[in-house]
Amino acid sequence: MSTPSKAVDTSKVTSLPAMFFAQAERHQDRNFLWSKVEGVYTPLSWGVVAQQVKAAAAGFKSIGVKHGDRVIIVSENRPDFFIADLAIMSIGAVAVPTYTTNTANNHLHIMNDSGARIVVVSTPQLARHVVAAAIEADNKVAIYVVDQPEKAIKADVDVRSWSDLLNAGKGAGVPAEVANLKREDLSCLIYTSGTGGLPKGVMLSHGNILANCFGATVLVKTLGIEDEVFLSFLPLSHSYEHMGGQFLPISLGAEIYYAERVETLSANLLECRPTFMTAVPRLYESMRMRILQNLKRQKPIEQKLFNLALDLGIKKYETPTAMTLWDKVQDFVLERLVRRKVQQRFGGRLKAMVSGGAPLNYDVGLFFIALGVPLLQGYGQTEAAPLISANPPLKVKLKTVGPPVAGVEAKIGPDGEILVRGEMVMKGYWNDPDTTMLAIDPDGWLHTGDIGHFDEDGYIEITDRKKDIIVNSGGDNIAPQRLQGILCLEEAVAQAMVYGDKRPYITAVIVPSETFVKAWAEQANVPADLAALATNTEFKSAISKAIERANTQLGTIEKVRKFVLAPQPFTVENGQMTPTLKVRRHTIVREYKDALEALYN
């Protein structure tokens, strides 16, 4: 592979910190990380970031962090996350990035499971849940707070200042440990949900992530790699953004802008004008909705031109040979009148937006392709660091997730399961050799849990999910059994089936308990008939209170936002329960599909 001028050949790099320090040496004074300071995007150069990474690494060593120790990071996307992450890895320690939306219970599980004794947290607000968890943790945990550490609740926990740690290592050089790091060494633990609900720590090596960077670079090199700009939007605790929004830009010598929050994303796109961006389907769904809502406020002639551009774009993609000469003439004019305006909403210089983390709805993908926005759907999972396949820019097939990227082998198992192999396959699950053996067979094949096949061009088409995990449109893994178990702890709820695959939030089918039905009906002086009560507004309101109580025990992405009431229980007789009394999700979804889908309108 011919290596672009600002990029490195990641197939030859020994570790992620070695790659970073080499790039920082090459690009010293160039702008690198951009974040908002008093409302204005302000850069840090490669050289300045490298100095802070060296200082943080020395600071960690001064407090006793050693090779193999785990250090948790709880932070929004910002330079401090980057600096902590690279500093931890630079001394051979293991970074454990976690979600800012985690509850205290989530943090407690990760602290105890990983055995981490140090946590870096960005703000006093986020420190609250971390402190609450640290009080209960098995180990004594020290918490370093970046912003206003004096405002963090101290309790009986050791709360310290991040700036003090940086000052302790000020002026240090590249850590000596960097020279000894190998591709097979553990770099980070990314926690992802399992079927039992408790997150599992996926052990990713330096080589796992570097192999991903190599595959991604080969994929996009046809677009030309020069002065690239990435907008980092997805949480960096997500393996997809951790690789695609942090380490891939390092390998390309690119600039990284940190988006502020979802509400400001449209403005941030115009401010940073990215050339590449990775996001999940939920983002594209909301952008499509905003574009269509804005269209309603336009003049009739503008609406007509937009719809014509959309229709012709769809025709050009789906049936290009059917395009008449007149179609082509109109399409050429509409490229300038309509599509360029849409492209400007994304900054005007996008080479590719990559959708991953969850399946992309075909109609959403088609909408953007038809309007000239370069959208590529990919496929992966945390256990593959995460990239497995993606549509190449010059031949996009929206109903597929593209062919395996360079360095990835893929095959279909006897039961239709997609199996993959390559350097990107995780080292295993932390402290869980049994589950690791189920996921990776003796020949090194990772069992993805997804069912699919190859089309005539070798593109992967996913048709079903073998494992019973909900993947919402934000790419978050949610274990349905855990949610259903918590809902059924409420006296008012006898049975529950949660729903939300490819959707922005969780909904549910709820079967009220017989006892609650009788008590409420008696008090309301109405018949205790579940079928009749399922459409009773006051009864549904009473069930809502039970759902709200259950939601207090759930994380933000797990909360049940809306629900439908079942007119009858799930039973073996109606096929909605197995003989061992497990919920048959597919059967119930088929029965209530229309009602559930209506909850998202």
Query: Uncertain segments of ≥5 residues (pLDDT<50)?
Result: none
CATH class assignment of the largest domain: Alpha Beta
Continuous helix count: 19
Q: Provide the domain count.
A: 3
> In the CATH hierarchy, what is the architecture of the largest domain at level 2?
3-Layer(aba) Sandwich
- Say how many strands there are: 25
Reading side by side through the largest sheet, how are the strands ordered? 4-3-5-6-7
Report on the biggest sheet: 5 strands, parallel
Helices and strands: which structural class?
alpha/beta
Helix fraction by DSSP (H/I, runs of at least 4): 25-40%
CATH topology of the largest domain: Rossmann fold
> In whole angstroms, how far apart are the ends?
47 Å
* Computed Rg: 25 Å
Give the rounded overall mean pLDDT: 93
The shape is: globular
Note the beta-strand portion.
15-25%
Notable characteristics:
601 residues; Rossmann fold; 3 domains; four-stranded mixed sheet; 19 helices
Give the helices and strands, then pairings:
Elements: H1 16-27, E1 31-37, E2 40-45, H2 46-62, E3 70-74, H3 79-90, E4 94-98, H4 104-114, E5 118-121, H5 124-136, E6 142-145, E7 158-161, H6 162-168, E8 186-192, E9 200-205, H7 206-220, E10 229-232, H8 239-252, E11 255-258, H9 265-272, E12 276-279, H10 281-295, H11 300-318, H12 325-344, E13 352-355, H13 362-370, E14 375-380, E15 387-390, E16 409-412, E17 417-421, E18 428-429, H14 433-439, E19 446-454, E20 460-465, E21 470-471, E22 477-478, H15 480-487, E23 493-499, E24 506-512, H16 514-524, H17 530-533, H18 537-551, E25 560-565, H19 585-598
Parallel strand pairs: 1-11, 3-4, 3-5, 5-6, 6-7, 10-11, 12-13, 13-14, 24-25
Antiparallel strand pairs: 1-2, 8-9, 9-18, 14-15, 16-17, 17-19, 19-20, 21-22, 23-24
